[in-house]
Amino acid sequence: MIPAPFDYVAPSTVDDAVRALADAGEDAKVLAGGQSLLPVLRVRLAAPTKIIDLGKVAELRGVREEGDHLVIGSMTTHYDVQRDPLIAEHAALLARATDTVADPQVRHRGTFGGSIAHADPAGDLLAPALALDCEMVIRGMDGQRTVAAADFFEDFFTTSLAPDEILVEVRVPKHTGWHAHYEKFNRVAQAWSMVAVAATVRTDGDTIAEARVALTNMSSVPVRARGVEEALVGQPATAESIRAAAEHAAEGTNPTVDGNADVEYRQHLARVLTGRAISAAMAG
Amino acid sequence: MRITVTVDGTSYTDDVEPRTLLVHYLRERLGKVGTVVGCDTSNCGACTVHLDGHSVKSCSVLAVQAHGSEVTTIEGLARDGQLHPVQQAFHDNHALQCGFCTPGMIMQSIDLLSDNPDPDEHAVREGLEGNLCRCTGYQNIVKAVRDAAHHMRPGAGPEAERVTGADTGSRTASSVGGGGE
Fold it and tell me: Which intervals hold domain FAD-binding PCMH-type (chain A) (predicted)?
């Protein structure tokens, strides 16, 4: 299948990209890695009149340190996130979740920011971004603003990005030395998560000092498992305490029903996978 | 829109519609029909090529996005009538049944081996996760990739040395084992 016709521009700076987006009006679409957008265009689920390709905007690629944060350019590919030494050291949860995204070809093209801005509830990078309290740096014609992950994701495929705004960077508070694991449950290779759990834990000796846990595909947006986090803090890192904490995983969740699973089964998965995620994080 | 792309070592300049997919540009404009289209969903990986040294699904890249880039297809692997070691390994191990997935399987296998020159069975299966064989001929495909790794390892003997040729110092996916870049 072939996409419907569109005009195409490939600006080389963020300023030019923002201007092009503002000029193009509401029927424009930003192209990041294209690994979700192009399949959608191909089957004509969308037919934007103008595509603004960020592929030539060099300033949007790469990872840098800024004090107690990492700053990840929105056009940094999944492949680069998987291999970045700063992310491995300070935000291992992002690397582990990215390992599970789609397949190698898609990870070569697909981008961190594109995945976040696309906001597919089954996308694997939303829950880690929420768990790590990331901040989204957004640029539009009116300047730059920063939105917390908890406020950024609004609904299925819907974020607080205005039609004329671009996600330029993601600021990640450093979680240096934290254990991390992303436990994904799907039916077949390269399938989207039915449910997945992002867990990262800081230990103090044998005790869990802090925990961040978030769930993929348990609502229209990623969900923080606060009950699990609170139950873990101060506990010894034993199988028993992890199992007890994981019982809280489905609290307050509102998963969708589809051909793969109903609500009850997804909530069961959330509890089981949370236990596995925390155990694997501690073991890793 | 005018694009210039180097494909299998030859530079092409063409006017294309922005909506043209890279795979359609390769097949219909350049006649590189060795790269095939197997699905409409980006799942099958049959259209895998290398774009600037990394494997991509050419159904999920616009031709205009490849402007200024180098593309290697299955047709650019053999040198002077000599199959690439991964092609040879697929032949030797009967790693195909109908053969439709083979171009993509081989391109992705070369990419895998550039990241991991000695993958175990699990790593091969993970590395080929984005490529589907509807004949379910996976056993021999995995065997072929491991056989290719064996033949491509440093000091593996005359054949591997011949195809890698003079070391260019680059280790892009396609250059490993003498890809046509």
Answer: 1-177
Return the number of other C-beta atoms located less than 10 Å from residue B11's C-beta. Answer: 9
Cβ B107 vs Cβ B174: under 8 Å: no
**Which amino acid, one-letter code, is at B115?**
D
Judge contact between B111 and B68, C-beta under 8 A: no
One domain, residues A63 and A169: yes
pLDDT at B56 over 80: yes
A–B interface: beta-carbon pairs under 8 A: 86
Q: Which amino acid is at B171?
A: R
Flag if B21 and A2 touch (Cβ within 8 Å).
yes
Question: Dihedral of CA A226/A229/A233/A235: which sign?
Answer: positive
Contact A128, A90 (CB under 8 A): no
* A105/B56 touch (CB, cutoff 8 Å), yes or no: yes
Indicate if A134 and A92 belong to the same structural domain: yes
> Which among A5, A103, A189 has the least Cβ separation from residue B19?
A5
Q: Per the CB < 8 Å rule, is A34 touching B18?
A: no
* Domain architecture of chain B: domains with CATH: 2-75 (3.10.20.30), 85-164 (1.10.150.120)
- Looking at the DSSP bridge assignments, the partners of residue A170 are A72, A136
Q: Is A211 part of a structural domain of the chain?
A: yes
Most distant CA atoms of chain A, gap in Å: 60
The tens digit of pLDDT for each residue in A53-66 reads: 999 999 999 999 99
DSSP helix/strand/coil, A284: coil
Whether the CB-CB separation of A254 and A188 falls below 8 Å is answered with no
Query: What's at A230, amino acid-wise?
Result: E
Structure tokens at A99: 């390992």
| B134 alpha carbon, distance to own chain's centre | 19
Residue B60 · residue A34 · CB < 8 Å: yes
CA dihedral A58, A138, A35, A188 (to 10 degrees): 130
Give the long-range contacts of residues A23-26, CB within 8 A, separation 24 or more: A24/A49, A24/A50, A24/A52, A26/A163
Q: Please state the pTM of the whole predicted model.
A: 0.93
Report the complex ipTM: 0.95
pLDDT digits (tens, 9 = 90+) for B90-137: 999 999 999 999 999 999 999 999 999 999 999 999 999 999 999 999
Which one of B24, B62, B108 makes the best mutation probe of the A interface by having the most chain A beta carbons within 10 Å? B62
Tell me, yes or no, if B4 comes closer than 8 A to chain A by beta carbon: no
Tell me the residue type at A103.
D
Q: How many CA atoms lie within 13 A of A164 on its CB side?
A: 14
First-to-final CA distance of chain B: 25
**Beta carbons within 10 angstroms of residue A8's beta carbon:** 18
